[in-house]
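Structure (tokenized):
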């Protein structure tokens, strides 16, 4: 999707000189938002977004520990295995934190 629904509505608002609420009404979006299918899809999207955010946060936290663990003498392979991370991710962090 090139633009989110809100961005498309904003573009239409500028082009047509109509307010967002009026455009939503013309396109029948108000009724669509009240349907069970729309509400379930919206909820599902929120849940998926929260789960993805938590997973990304956990991975980020693990990656932040890589330089410290390396300073203790662990290899990239050992760190990747111990933290359950992709070896390439660990290698990139290790390379970016090494002094030149």
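Design, position by position:
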């Amino acid at each position: 999707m090139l633009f989110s629904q809100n961005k498309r509505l904003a573009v239409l608002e500028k082009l047509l000189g109509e307010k967002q609420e009026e455009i939503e009404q013309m396109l029948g979006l108000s009724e669509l938002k009240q349907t069970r299918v729309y509400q379930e899809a919206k909820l599902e999207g929120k849940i998926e977004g929260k789960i993805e955010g938590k997973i990304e946060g956990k991975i980020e936290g693990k990656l932040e520990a890589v330089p410290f663990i390396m300073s203790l003498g662990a290899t990239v392979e050992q760190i990747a295995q111990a933290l359950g991370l992709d070896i390439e991710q660990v290698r990139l962090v290790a390379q970016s934190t090494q002094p030149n």
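Reviewer-requested clarification: Helices lie at 5-16, 20-27, 29-33, 36-71, 76-83, 87-97. The mean pLDDT is 84.
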